[in-house]
Design a protein that fits this description.
The chain is built from twelve helices and 25 strands. It has 441 residues and is α/β, with parallel strands linked by helices. It folds into two domains: 12-27 and 250-439, UDP-n-acetylglucosamine1-carboxyvinyl-transferase, Chain, CATH 3.65.10; 30-247, Enolpyruvate transferase domain (UDP-n-acetylglucosamine1-carboxyvinyl-transferase, Chain).
């Protein structure tokens, strides 16, 4: 990784790119990093996690493990060695700060329910607004002792850890697939088999990733599909690695940004370190770029994305990859035609209300956008460019890494934008600004 070595300026002036060229190796997957650490926690097994994402959300998980008595140390190759300690079962409640990490909060709500001791989970003001009610309800049905200490269905919560009973439970996963992922992993430490029914499941590829990582930890899950509904059967067992090591695949979510830059600015980007057959839902974003006019070629561990700078509008349901709505919106701003993004109402409960945030900042940049109840309508303008000599427009990021990164793409093509609080990208992609500078031409 080359480019910036110091924290970026605030606001960060995004320079217009005449094109892009180069190689980007995205960091380890945030989703897989969370799940690998969580399964080590549930299994109470020492583990070495290689290529772990080094970002704010994972730092919060590391700190939580330390608070829970685990020994945690960095190892070569962006790895982490975790070993269980003795804090669980302590008489006093242990406070765990999830900061702004929604995934961490939801995973720990379930994992602490099966870890002896008393735990208080809390986080940032925005995290306190993000819902966990359906997960809490399902865990209580399985015998978990969870007390909401503030707003019902939200953090902070007090959890008395133990074991879940077996049985059948239905969960409303219309807001977040993380409810299902958290419960599937915690079910490994139950008194008997758990059957979990999810009649509605948004962002289902994230659950597929959970199932893949669980299988890698020796804990496969039975799955039955019936239309949109899914039914899972989890047999209690200790998740563990055959050799005590696990390697995290590259992050397809992070890879989407340089790929999108190639599509709208023109040029070629090679993406390295991604799994050839990825279950990460955001891998499908590359297919969207192909529909819009880019060329995508995969060879082994490398994917090349080429673009000519001209893209065509699409009409798509992004419920399976909601994190890429801001990215697609950035590409759509320069497309020929009108892009419709549908079925993503659950984006309103992310780090920000992402539909409102994207619409507001694109309009500030000169794009015509209609904010819908469950999506966006974007009028593309291939000629959109900053007027010569005009002052830079400051873009708000809403403390949301994906707003910062997607609006940076708009700045690369349009010019004349600066990103407020650029450091928010450290939540998932600390090297983003350096990589952006590296490929700019």
């Amino acid at each position: 990784m080359a480019g910036l070595t110091a924290p970026p300026a605030d606001p960060y002036p995004v320079r217009r790119a005449a094109g892009v060229s180069g190689v980007v190796e995205p960091p380890g997957s945030k989703s897989i990093s969370h799940r690998a650490l969580n399964l080590a926690l549930i299994g109470r097994q020492p583990a070495t996690i290689e290529n772990l994402l080094d970002a704010d959300d994972i730092a919060a998980f590391r700190a939580a493990l330390v608070a829970m008595g685990w020994r945690v140390r960095s190892v070569a190759g962006s790895g982490l060695r975790v070993e269980p300690g003795q804090a669980d079962g302590a008489e006093d409640a242990v406070r765990l700060d999830c900061r702004g990490a929604g995934t961490l909060l939801r995973l720990l709500v379930a994992s602490c329910a099966v870890t002896p001791g008393e735990w208080i989970l809390d986080g940032s003001p925005r995290l306190r607004e993000r819902p966990i009610g359906p997960l809490v309800a399902a865990l209580r049905q399985l015998g978990a002792g969870i007390e909401e200490l503030g707003r019902p269905g939200c953090a902070p919560v007090r959890i008395r850890g133990g074991r879940l009973t077996g049985g059948r439970v239905e969960i409303d996963a219309g807001e977040s697939s993380q409810y299902v992922s958290a419960l599937l992993m915690a079910a490994l430490n139950a008194e008997g088999p758990i059957e979990l029914l999810a009649p509605v499941l948004v962002s289902s590829p994230y659950v597929d990733t959970t199932l893949e990582v669980m299988a890698d930890f020796g804990a496969p899950v039975g799955v039955r599909r019936d239309g949109e509904a899914r039914e899972f059967r989890v047999e209690p067992r200790k998740p563990e690695l055959a050799d005590g090591r696990y390697r995290v695949a590259g992050d397809d979510s992070a890879a989407a940004y340089p790929a999108a830059a190639a599509a709208i600015c023109g040029g070629s980007v090679r993406l390295r370190g991604l799994a050839p057959a990825s279950t990460q839902g955001d891998r499908a974003f590359l297919g969207l770029l192909e529909r819009m006019g880019a060329t995508v070629q995969a060879t082994g561990q490398e994917i090349q994305v080429e673009g000519g700078g001209a893209v065509t509008a699409v009409d798509c349901d992004l419920s399976a990859m909601p994190d890429q709505v801001p990215t697609l919106a950035a590409v759509a701003a320069f497309a020929n035609g009108t892009t419709w993004i549908r079925n993503v109402a659950h984006l309103r409960i992310k780090e920000s209300d992402r539909l409102a945030a994207v619409a507001t900042e694109l309009r500030r940049s000169g794009v015509i956008v209609d904010e819908l109840e469950d999506g966006l309508r974007i009028e593309g303008n291939p000629g959109l460019a900053a007027p010569p000599g005009s002052p830079r427009i400051p873009i708000d990021t809403y403390d949301d890494h994906r707003i910062a990164m997607s609006m940076a793409l708009v700045g690369m093509r349009r010019g004349g934008l600066s990103i407020r609080r650029p450091e928010v990208v450290c939540k998932s992609y600390p090297g983003f600004w350096a990589d952006l500078e590296e490929i700019r031409r």
